[in-house]
Design a protein that fits this description.
The protein is of the alpha/beta class. The protein is built from five helices and ten strands, in the order αβαβαββαββββαββ. Strands 1, 2, 3, 4, 5, 6, 7, 8, 9 and 10 form a ten-stranded mixed β-sheet that branches. Strand 9 and strand 10 form a beta hairpin. The chain is globular and about 45 Å long. It starts with about 25 loop residues before the first helix and ends with a strand. About 35% of the residues are buried.
Amino acid sequence: MIESKGWNWKIVKDNQAEIWKNPSIESYYLLNRWKLQDKKKFLDLGCGLGRHSILFGKNDFNVNCFDISEEAINRTKEWAEQEKLKFEYNVGDMLKLPYKNEQFDCIYCRNVISHTDTEGMKQVIQEIYRVMKRDGECYLTLGSKDTWGFKQEDWPLIDENTRLRMEEGPEYKIPHFYVDYNLVKELFKDFEIINIYQVVDYYEDEKGLFDSYHYHVLIQKK
């Protein structure tokens, strides 16, 4: 199993961080869905700079912020204090979550748990299952094998599903795990799968047009 490694948030300056302070589109749907289900105890698994922690905290969820990066946790805490929000914080490895069994009603992990290899992914999923309450839900994203990153032959192949990202930036030398539909079904066989869909994002820079494919998965603990 490859060593866990998180984003290098120290090189993401405040003027570059605005995109990471805006909640993702689906977070508003999940906020409404989980409110209607009266779910309260929320785990932001891989909280980054805190964009989803702040959103859910402002809507009366009991928020727990978790990240492997102490820098991320410190910046989330600073933002939360500015908003007069009180959260629980933990720095650690998603391979071994520092929480008791069946503790959370809802878990959100966007573009987070892919930062491991195949064996690590299996262990992370076991940990998610362990800390979720019965009937609890988790929304997560996984890199698709259709995306450009998986096709980069100059990025080292760690196992049949994992490449080491070699692009300069905050994800340099961070493992990226990729899936197809059948692998998603296999990985989450112990859960009820409520939804699976694949999203493609397009973006351009001076090097050209890029596309990024991700599976979005909503699961429930049986």
